[in-house]
Amino acid sequence: MSQVFPRISRRRALPATAVGAVVLGLLLWWLLPLGDEPPSGTIVFSTGTSRGVYQEYGERLRAEFAKDMPNLKVKLLNSAGSQENVQRVATGQADFTIAAADAVEAYELRHGSGAGRLRGVARLYDDYVHLVVRSDSDIKNVADLRHKRVATGLPDSGVRLIADRVLKAAGIDPRQDITPVADGIDTGPDRLERHKIDAFFWSGGLPTKGLVALAQRSAFKFVPIEGDLVAKLHDQGEEARYYRATNIPESAYPAVQQGNEVPTIAVSNLLMTRTDVDPRLTEWVTRTVINSRDDIGAHVHSAQLVDLRTAVYTDPLPLQEGARRYYRSVKP
Protein backbone atom coordinates (compact mmCIF):
# COMPACT_ATOMS: atom_id res chain seq x y z
CA MET A 1 0.00 0.00 0.00
CA SER A 2 1.40 3.38 -0.94
CA GLN A 3 1.90 6.04 1.73
CA VAL A 4 -0.33 9.09 1.45
CA PHE A 5 2.17 11.26 3.35
CA PRO A 6 5.82 10.87 2.40
CA ARG A 7 8.32 10.26 5.17
CA ILE A 8 10.20 13.39 6.13
CA SER A 9 13.89 12.91 6.53
CA ARG A 10 15.82 14.27 9.54
CA ARG A 11 17.68 16.63 7.23
CA ARG A 12 14.41 18.12 5.92
CA ALA A 13 12.78 18.18 9.36
CA LEU A 14 15.43 20.45 10.88
CA PRO A 15 14.71 23.44 8.62
CA ALA A 16 10.99 22.98 9.27
CA THR A 17 11.65 23.12 13.01
CA ALA A 18 13.70 26.26 12.56
CA VAL A 19 10.93 27.88 10.55
CA GLY A 20 8.43 26.99 13.28
CA ALA A 21 10.65 28.61 15.89
CA VAL A 22 10.88 31.77 13.83
CA VAL A 23 7.10 31.91 13.38
CA LEU A 24 6.59 31.39 17.12
CA GLY A 25 9.09 34.12 17.88
CA LEU A 26 7.35 36.54 15.55
CA LEU A 27 4.00 35.70 17.12
CA LEU A 28 5.35 36.39 20.60
CA TRP A 29 6.89 39.63 19.36
CA TRP A 30 3.49 40.69 18.03
CA LEU A 31 1.63 39.76 21.20
CA LEU A 32 4.30 41.26 23.44
CA PRO A 33 5.61 44.15 21.35
CA LEU A 34 7.62 45.56 24.26
CA GLY A 35 10.07 42.73 23.69
CA ASP A 36 11.27 42.17 27.26
CA GLU A 37 10.25 41.00 30.71
CA PRO A 38 7.15 42.57 32.29
CA PRO A 39 7.84 45.43 34.71
CA SER A 40 8.17 44.63 38.41
CA GLY A 41 8.22 46.62 41.62
CA THR A 42 5.43 48.49 43.42
CA ILE A 43 3.04 51.19 42.26
CA VAL A 44 0.30 53.09 44.06
CA PHE A 45 -3.11 53.50 42.38
CA SER A 46 -5.57 55.98 43.89
CA THR A 47 -9.21 54.92 43.34
CA GLY A 48 -12.30 56.40 45.03
CA THR A 49 -15.01 55.83 47.62
CA SER A 50 -16.59 52.49 48.39
CA ARG A 51 -19.63 51.66 46.21
CA GLY A 52 -18.23 53.94 43.51
CA VAL A 53 -17.04 53.02 40.02
CA TYR A 54 -13.46 54.24 40.53
CA GLN A 55 -12.91 51.78 43.35
CA GLU A 56 -14.38 48.78 41.55
CA TYR A 57 -12.59 49.61 38.31
CA GLY A 58 -9.30 49.92 40.20
CA GLU A 59 -9.78 46.55 41.87
CA ARG A 60 -10.58 44.84 38.57
CA LEU A 61 -7.66 46.55 36.86
CA ARG A 62 -5.28 45.37 39.58
CA ALA A 63 -6.35 41.79 38.83
CA GLU A 64 -5.61 42.33 35.13
CA PHE A 65 -2.20 43.82 35.94
CA ALA A 66 -1.44 40.67 37.93
CA LYS A 67 -2.02 38.57 34.81
CA ASP A 68 0.20 40.65 32.55
CA MET A 69 2.78 41.81 35.11
CA PRO A 70 2.85 39.14 37.85
CA ASN A 71 5.83 40.69 39.62
CA LEU A 72 4.25 44.13 39.85
CA LYS A 73 2.64 44.91 43.22
CA VAL A 74 -0.27 47.35 42.99
CA LYS A 75 -1.31 49.16 46.16
CA LEU A 76 -4.82 50.63 45.98
CA LEU A 77 -5.73 53.73 47.97
CA ASN A 78 -9.33 54.79 48.55
CA SER A 79 -9.96 58.49 48.06
CA ALA A 80 -12.66 61.14 48.14
CA GLY A 81 -12.60 61.20 44.34
CA SER A 82 -11.22 63.17 41.40
CA GLN A 83 -9.83 66.22 43.16
CA GLU A 84 -7.91 64.19 45.73
CA ASN A 85 -6.77 61.76 43.04
CA VAL A 86 -5.24 64.51 40.91
CA GLN A 87 -3.48 66.00 43.91
CA ARG A 88 -2.08 62.62 44.94
CA VAL A 89 -0.53 61.90 41.55
CA ALA A 90 0.77 65.45 41.13
CA THR A 91 2.54 65.36 44.51
CA GLY A 92 3.86 61.82 44.18
CA GLN A 93 1.56 60.15 46.71
CA ALA A 94 0.21 57.91 43.91
CA ASP A 95 1.58 56.82 40.54
CA PHE A 96 -1.67 56.28 38.63
CA THR A 97 -5.27 57.30 39.12
CA ILE A 98 -8.58 58.07 37.45
CA ALA A 99 -9.99 61.60 37.51
CA ALA A 100 -12.59 63.64 35.68
CA ALA A 101 -11.25 66.12 33.13
CA ASP A 102 -12.76 69.14 34.90
CA ALA A 103 -10.92 68.28 38.12
CA VAL A 104 -7.65 67.93 36.21
CA GLU A 105 -8.13 71.32 34.57
CA ALA A 106 -9.11 72.92 37.87
CA TYR A 107 -5.92 71.64 39.52
CA GLU A 108 -3.76 72.91 36.67
CA LEU A 109 -5.41 76.34 36.69
CA ARG A 110 -4.71 76.63 40.42
CA HIS A 111 -1.05 75.96 39.60
CA GLY A 112 -0.99 73.22 42.21
CA SER A 113 2.23 71.49 43.13
CA GLY A 114 3.42 69.15 40.38
CA ALA A 115 0.73 70.20 37.86
CA GLY A 116 3.27 70.46 35.06
CA ARG A 117 4.26 66.81 35.53
CA LEU A 118 0.76 65.42 35.02
CA ARG A 119 0.29 63.26 31.93
CA GLY A 120 -2.54 61.27 30.36
CA VAL A 121 -2.60 57.52 29.82
CA ALA A 122 -6.09 56.93 28.38
CA ARG A 123 -9.51 58.45 28.14
CA LEU A 124 -11.76 55.87 29.76
CA TYR A 125 -15.50 56.54 30.06
CA ASP A 126 -17.87 59.37 30.98
CA ASP A 127 -19.17 60.28 34.41
CA TYR A 128 -22.86 61.19 34.55
CA VAL A 129 -24.24 63.60 37.12
CA HIS A 130 -27.04 62.03 39.19
CA LEU A 131 -29.33 64.16 41.34
CA VAL A 132 -31.22 61.73 43.57
CA VAL A 133 -34.31 62.34 45.73
CA ARG A 134 -36.93 60.14 47.40
CA SER A 135 -39.80 59.08 45.18
CA ASP A 136 -42.31 61.22 47.12
CA SER A 137 -40.12 64.34 46.99
CA ASP A 138 -41.51 67.65 45.71
CA ILE A 139 -38.11 68.52 44.18
CA LYS A 140 -38.60 68.62 40.41
CA ASN A 141 -35.59 70.63 39.23
CA VAL A 142 -32.29 71.99 40.51
CA ALA A 143 -33.84 75.31 41.53
CA ASP A 144 -36.14 73.44 43.95
CA LEU A 145 -33.10 72.52 46.06
CA ARG A 146 -33.13 75.96 47.66
CA HIS A 147 -33.43 75.67 51.47
CA LYS A 148 -33.06 71.87 51.26
CA ARG A 149 -30.51 69.56 52.89
CA VAL A 150 -28.33 68.52 49.98
CA ALA A 151 -25.34 66.15 49.94
CA THR A 152 -22.83 67.65 47.53
CA GLY A 153 -20.06 65.08 47.91
CA LEU A 154 -16.87 64.89 49.95
CA PRO A 155 -14.72 68.03 50.08
CA ASP A 156 -12.00 66.73 47.70
CA SER A 157 -14.31 64.85 45.34
CA GLY A 158 -15.20 65.51 41.74
CA VAL A 159 -18.83 65.36 42.88
CA ARG A 160 -18.33 68.44 45.09
CA LEU A 161 -16.69 70.31 42.22
CA ILE A 162 -19.51 69.72 39.75
CA ALA A 163 -22.38 69.88 42.26
CA ASP A 164 -21.33 73.37 43.39
CA ARG A 165 -21.16 74.50 39.77
CA VAL A 166 -24.57 73.05 38.89
CA LEU A 167 -26.11 74.81 41.90
CA LYS A 168 -24.51 78.13 40.93
CA ALA A 169 -25.76 77.70 37.36
CA ALA A 170 -29.27 77.39 38.79
CA GLY A 171 -28.81 80.57 40.84
CA ILE A 172 -28.22 78.79 44.16
CA ASP A 173 -25.34 79.65 46.47
CA PRO A 174 -24.05 76.22 47.64
CA ARG A 175 -22.98 77.70 50.98
CA GLN A 176 -25.95 79.89 51.88
CA ASP A 177 -29.04 78.78 49.93
CA ILE A 178 -28.94 75.11 50.92
CA THR A 179 -27.79 73.12 53.92
CA PRO A 180 -24.74 71.41 52.40
CA VAL A 181 -23.85 67.94 53.64
CA ALA A 182 -20.57 66.13 52.92
CA ASP A 183 -21.91 62.74 51.86
CA GLY A 184 -20.76 60.62 48.93
CA ILE A 185 -22.16 57.52 47.28
CA ASP A 186 -21.01 55.44 50.26
CA THR A 187 -23.23 57.27 52.80
CA GLY A 188 -25.66 59.42 50.80
CA PRO A 189 -28.16 56.67 49.87
CA ASP A 190 -28.55 55.54 53.47
CA ARG A 191 -29.00 59.10 54.75
CA LEU A 192 -31.60 59.78 52.05
CA GLU A 193 -33.54 56.67 53.11
CA ARG A 194 -33.49 57.80 56.73
CA HIS A 195 -34.69 61.32 55.81
CA LYS A 196 -31.45 62.86 57.04
CA ILE A 197 -31.04 64.65 53.72
CA ASP A 198 -33.46 65.70 50.98
CA ALA A 199 -31.24 65.06 47.97
CA PHE A 200 -27.75 64.04 47.00
CA PHE A 201 -25.50 64.56 44.01
CA TRP A 202 -23.40 61.80 42.53
CA SER A 203 -21.13 61.85 39.49
CA GLY A 204 -20.08 58.43 38.23
CA GLY A 205 -20.15 55.82 35.51
CA LEU A 206 -23.32 53.98 34.53
CA PRO A 207 -24.67 52.18 36.36
CA THR A 208 -23.18 52.92 39.77
CA LYS A 209 -23.60 49.91 42.05
CA GLY A 210 -24.39 52.07 45.07
CA LEU A 211 -27.52 53.31 43.27
CA VAL A 212 -28.39 49.87 41.95
CA ALA A 213 -28.33 48.61 45.53
CA LEU A 214 -30.49 51.54 46.70
CA ALA A 215 -33.08 50.79 44.01
CA GLN A 216 -33.40 47.23 45.32
CA ARG A 217 -34.44 48.34 48.78
CA SER A 218 -35.95 51.84 48.49
CA ALA A 219 -37.91 53.94 45.99
CA PHE A 220 -36.18 57.02 44.62
CA LYS A 221 -36.13 59.14 41.47
CA PHE A 222 -33.74 61.28 39.48
CA VAL A 223 -34.16 65.03 39.15
CA PRO A 224 -33.43 66.17 35.58
CA ILE A 225 -30.56 68.58 34.99
CA GLU A 226 -31.76 70.36 31.88
CA GLY A 227 -29.53 71.32 29.00
CA ASP A 228 -29.98 75.06 29.48
CA LEU A 229 -27.77 74.80 32.56
CA VAL A 230 -24.81 73.67 30.44
CA ALA A 231 -24.44 77.09 28.80
CA LYS A 232 -24.47 78.68 32.26
CA LEU A 233 -21.91 76.15 33.43
CA HIS A 234 -19.63 77.06 30.54
CA ASP A 235 -19.70 80.67 31.69
CA GLN A 236 -18.06 79.68 34.98
CA GLY A 237 -14.52 79.20 33.70
CA GLU A 238 -12.10 77.29 31.51
CA GLU A 239 -12.49 73.98 33.34
CA ALA A 240 -16.27 74.04 32.81
CA ARG A 241 -15.80 73.48 29.06
CA TYR A 242 -15.56 69.75 29.70
CA TYR A 243 -19.25 69.45 30.58
CA ARG A 244 -21.73 68.38 27.94
CA ALA A 245 -25.48 67.92 27.93
CA THR A 246 -26.62 64.31 27.63
CA ASN A 247 -29.13 61.82 29.04
CA ILE A 248 -28.92 58.93 31.45
CA PRO A 249 -30.18 56.17 29.13
CA GLU A 250 -33.32 54.33 30.17
CA SER A 251 -31.34 51.09 30.48
CA ALA A 252 -29.04 52.41 33.23
CA TYR A 253 -31.48 52.01 36.15
CA PRO A 254 -34.60 50.44 34.58
CA ALA A 255 -36.47 49.90 37.84
CA VAL A 256 -36.15 53.59 38.65
CA GLN A 257 -36.45 55.18 35.23
CA GLN A 258 -39.40 53.14 33.98
CA GLY A 259 -38.39 53.52 30.34
CA ASN A 260 -37.52 57.22 30.54
CA GLU A 261 -34.24 58.96 29.84
CA VAL A 262 -33.06 61.58 32.33
CA PRO A 263 -31.46 64.84 31.08
CA THR A 264 -28.15 65.47 32.78
CA ILE A 265 -24.50 66.45 32.32
CA ALA A 266 -21.47 64.28 31.56
CA VAL A 267 -17.71 64.71 31.81
CA SER A 268 -14.96 62.38 30.60
CA ASN A 269 -12.68 60.37 32.91
CA LEU A 270 -8.95 60.08 32.37
CA LEU A 271 -6.41 57.51 33.50
CA MET A 272 -3.39 59.59 34.40
CA THR A 273 0.18 59.49 35.70
CA ARG A 274 3.31 61.70 35.77
CA THR A 275 6.26 62.39 33.51
CA ASP A 276 8.71 60.73 35.93
CA VAL A 277 6.90 57.37 36.00
CA ASP A 278 8.86 54.84 33.91
CA PRO A 279 7.57 55.05 30.31
CA ARG A 280 8.12 51.32 29.90
CA LEU A 281 5.80 50.64 32.84
CA THR A 282 3.24 53.09 31.48
CA GLU A 283 3.35 51.35 28.09
CA TRP A 284 2.51 48.00 29.71
CA VAL A 285 -0.21 49.61 31.83
CA THR A 286 -1.77 51.23 28.78
CA ARG A 287 -1.88 47.95 26.86
CA THR A 288 -3.48 46.14 29.79
CA VAL A 289 -6.12 48.84 30.15
CA ILE A 290 -7.08 48.60 26.48
CA ASN A 291 -6.91 44.79 26.24
CA SER A 292 -8.85 44.16 29.45
CA ARG A 293 -11.88 46.18 28.39
CA ASP A 294 -14.15 43.20 27.82
CA ASP A 295 -13.07 41.26 30.91
CA ILE A 296 -13.52 44.25 33.21
CA GLY A 297 -16.60 45.39 31.31
CA ALA A 298 -18.36 42.15 32.19
CA HIS A 299 -18.42 43.43 35.78
CA VAL A 300 -18.03 47.21 35.46
CA HIS A 301 -20.37 48.34 32.70
CA SER A 302 -18.58 51.67 32.20
CA ALA A 303 -15.39 49.84 31.20
CA GLN A 304 -17.12 48.62 28.04
CA LEU A 305 -16.81 52.17 26.73
CA VAL A 306 -13.00 52.15 26.76
CA ASP A 307 -12.08 52.39 23.10
CA LEU A 308 -8.69 52.43 21.39
CA ARG A 309 -9.94 55.04 18.91
CA THR A 310 -10.80 57.58 21.62
CA ALA A 311 -8.38 56.59 24.39
CA VAL A 312 -5.67 58.87 23.00
CA TYR A 313 -7.75 62.01 23.62
CA THR A 314 -6.66 62.85 27.16
CA ASP A 315 -7.27 66.62 27.04
CA PRO A 316 -6.27 68.65 29.06
CA LEU A 317 -3.26 66.37 29.59
CA PRO A 318 -0.68 65.45 26.95
CA LEU A 319 0.04 61.75 26.66
CA GLN A 320 2.77 60.26 28.79
CA GLU A 321 5.63 58.96 26.65
CA GLY A 322 4.91 55.32 27.49
CA ALA A 323 1.27 55.66 26.49
CA ARG A 324 2.31 57.39 23.29
CA ARG A 325 4.60 54.47 22.46
CA TYR A 326 1.78 52.01 22.92
CA TYR A 327 -0.67 53.88 20.70
CA ARG A 328 1.96 54.24 18.00
CA SER A 329 2.67 50.50 18.15
CA VAL A 330 -0.96 49.59 17.46
CA LYS A 331 -1.73 52.33 14.96
CA PRO A 332 -2.93 50.78 11.67
**Structural class, judged by helices and strands?**
alpha/beta
What does the overall shape look like?
globular
What is the rounded distance between the termini?
52 Å
Total DSSP helices: 13
Mean pLDDT: 90
Number of strands: 10
Taken in chain order, the helices and strands follow as: HEHEHEHEEHEHEHEHEHEHHHH
The amount of helix comes to: 25-40%
**Rg from alpha-carbon coordinates:** 24 Å
Largest sheet: 10 strands, mixed
Spans where pLDDT lies below 50 across 5 or more residues: 1-14, 16-31
Strand content: 15-25%
Q: Mind sketching the topology for me?
A:
Layout: H1 10-31, E1 41-46, H2 53-68, E2 72-77, H3 82-90, E3 96-100, H4 101-109, E4 118-134, E5 149-151, H5 158-169, E6 179-181, H6 188-193, E7 199-204, H7 209-217, E8 220-222, H8 228-234, E9 244-248, H9 254-257, E10 262-274, H10 279-291, H11 293-297, H12 308-311, H13 321-330
Parallel strand pairs: 1-2, 1-3, 5-6, 5-7
Antiparallel strand pairs: 3-10, 4-7, 4-8, 4-10, 9-10
Helix pairs in contact: 2-10, 5-8, 10-13
Brief summary:
With 332 residues, this protein is α/β, with parallel strands linked by helices. It has 13 helices and 10 strands.
What would you say this structure looks like, in words?
With 332 residues, the protein is α/β, with parallel strands linked by helices. The protein has 13 helices and ten strands. It has helices at residues 10-31, 53-68, 82-90, 101-109, 158-169, 188-193, 209-217, 228-234, 254-257, 279-291, 293-297, 308-311, 321-330, and strands spanning 41-46, 72-77, 96-100, 118-134, 149-151, 179-181, 199-204, 220-222, 244-248, 262-274. Strands 1, 2, 3, 4, 5, 6, 7, 8, 9 and 10 form a ten-stranded mixed beta sheet that branches. Helix 5 (158-169) packs across helix 8 (228-234). The chain is globular and about 60 Å long.
